[in-house]
Amino acid sequence: MMLLGLTAAVIAAFCWAVSAALYKKGAANVSPITANVLRSTPALATLAVIGLFLNVYPLTYLLTLSDMWLILGSSLFAFVIGDVLYFISLQRIGISRATPLTAIYPIFVVVLQFVFLHEVVHALMILAAFSAVIGVILLGSQLDSSISVDSKVAQRALWLGAAAALATAISWSISIIMLSEVLETAHLILVAILRLVIALVVLTPLALGTKKGRDGFRISRRAWWILGAGGIIALAAGYIAFTVGLLLAGTTPATILSSLTPLFAAIIGWRGLQEKVGWRTLAGIIACVLGIMLTAIAVSLV
Fold first, then answer.
1. Cα distance between residue 267 and residue 269, in whole Å
2. Where are the beta strands (DSSP E) in 8-158?
């Protein structure tokens, strides 16, 4: 079961790598809030159908007030705050810079678990987190160099995008801690549905409240399909894989392995887009694989 959980976390990382590329294409001229609404709606519809087949809706009555607060907080930190900042970073600094920076969230998860939950964290798990982070930073530094930073305006945009990416990592880490807590008692599909409902209730009025937000709904049908596909891959398939990882492998191992999204982004770019592979890419891949191995060893020792 542990191996299945670790595998699920890696699958989640792959799903998020694919969806990030789709977001970059589909949300190029859309406000971050509107893009979030457009990709979340198909994902919610998909999860709602799954929930219908699994008959999870009667379980809503079993949720406690504490569960609802955790679901609310997890939704706000994941989708309303974290993902909006993520879209901002994608638009300002590109997928290859934004993805590695946001992927350092395992460090914050480990810190939060130690400080607030007083959980014992194996030393190898900390080494695994740092190895994975070093890997994704190396991968990101080697990829997309299409963004010019010569002018002061471009430099300011780069710094703002980087700040948004780091804030995303912090927000996601808080959400993950809340999510792992509520999944101890609530069904993962029901939690997913409620989180997206809350996100859409908050984000839709915000998107409709500005002209740029309303204009975002007038994108081409192709952009709709791209964003929708990205949402289903990330918020339905990726979420299910990640939560299975949380339940079977534990919060820290699953979080570390799920942060390997830039590794898959590099492989996709190399194999699918014929991008050049430099020494930083190779070093980054080695560091990421080392993180996976250290995680597996640490799990076996716990």
1. 5
2. none
Number of domains in the chain: 1
By the 10 Å C-beta count (0-12 exposed, 13-18 middle, 19+ buried), 297 is classed as middle
Q: Are 248 and 4 in contact (CB under 8 A)?
A: yes
- The arithmetic mean of pLDDT across residues 216-238, rounded, is 89
Residue predicted with more confidence, 60 or 111: 60
- Tell me the two tokens of residue 46: 């998909």
Expressed in angstroms, the distance from the first to the final Cα of the chain is 15
HSE-up of 109 (CA within 13 Å, CB side)? 33
Tens digit of pLDDT for each residue in 23-32?
877 776 788 8
Contact of 32 with 258, CB cutoff 8 Å: no
Collapsing DSSP states into helix, strand and coil, what is residue 110?
A: helix
Q: Please give the residue range of the domain that contains residue 158.
A: 2-301
How much helix, strand and coil, in percent to the nearest 5, is found in the chain? 85, 0, 15
In the three-class reduction of DSSP (H, G, I as helix; E, B as strand; rest coil), residue 189 is classed as helix
Buried b / exposed e over 196-230, threshold 16 CB at 10 Å, is bbbbbebbbebbeeeeebeebeebeeebbebbbbb
* Residue in 34, 17, 35, 14 with CA at minimum distance from that of residue 26: 35
User: What whole-number distance in Å separates Cα of residue 88 and Cα of residue 157?
Assistant: 10
CA distance 263 to 285: 6
What would you measure as the largest C-alpha separation in the chain, in angstroms? 57
Model pLDDT for residues 236-279, shown as the tens digit of each residue: 999 999 999 988 888 777 877 887 777 777 666 565 545 555 66
Joined together, the tokens standing for residue 252 give 């820290």
* Averaged confidence pLDDT in the chain: 81
